[in-house]
UniProtKB/TrEMBL annotation:
<dbReference type="InterPro" id="IPR001155">
    <property type="entry name" value="OxRdtase_FMN_N"/>
</dbReference>
<protein>
    <submittedName>
        <fullName>N-ethylmaleimide reductase</fullName>
    </submittedName>
</protein>
<dbReference type="InterPro" id="IPR045247">
    <property type="entry name" value="Oye-like"/>
</dbReference>
<dbReference type="GO" id="GO:0016491">
    <property type="term" value="F:oxidoreductase activity"/>
</dbReference>
<feature type="domain" description="NADH:flavin oxidoreductase/NADH oxidase N-terminal">
    <location>
        <begin position="3"/>
        <end position="44"/>
    </location>
</feature>
<dbReference type="GO" id="GO:0005829">
    <property type="term" value="C:cytosol"/>
</dbReference>
<dbReference type="InterPro" id="IPR013785">
    <property type="entry name" value="Aldolase_TIM"/>
</dbReference>
<dbReference type="Pfam" id="PF00724">
    <property type="entry name" value="Oxidored_FMN"/>
</dbReference>
<dbReference type="GO" id="GO:0010181">
    <property type="term" value="F:FMN binding"/>
</dbReference>
Amino acid sequence: MVNNGYDRQMAIDAVASGRADLVSFGRLFMANPDLVERLRVNGPLNDLMGPETFYGGGAHGYIDYPTLEDSGAAIALA
């Protein structure tokens, strides 16, 4: 298992080359509630807000990131 700074292509390459059996995504999940779908369709990722929003302190930057469907990007990818 590998992690820390991987994007979609880096994850694909790591697994394909045998360097890893799986790749974990921590911060990307925080900004992209539908990360699995975004990676599956190679959709755009939300920008991650600052670390002060990672673990609470209000909804902003914690539970208010838009999904692909909410952002309208899903329509363009369908």
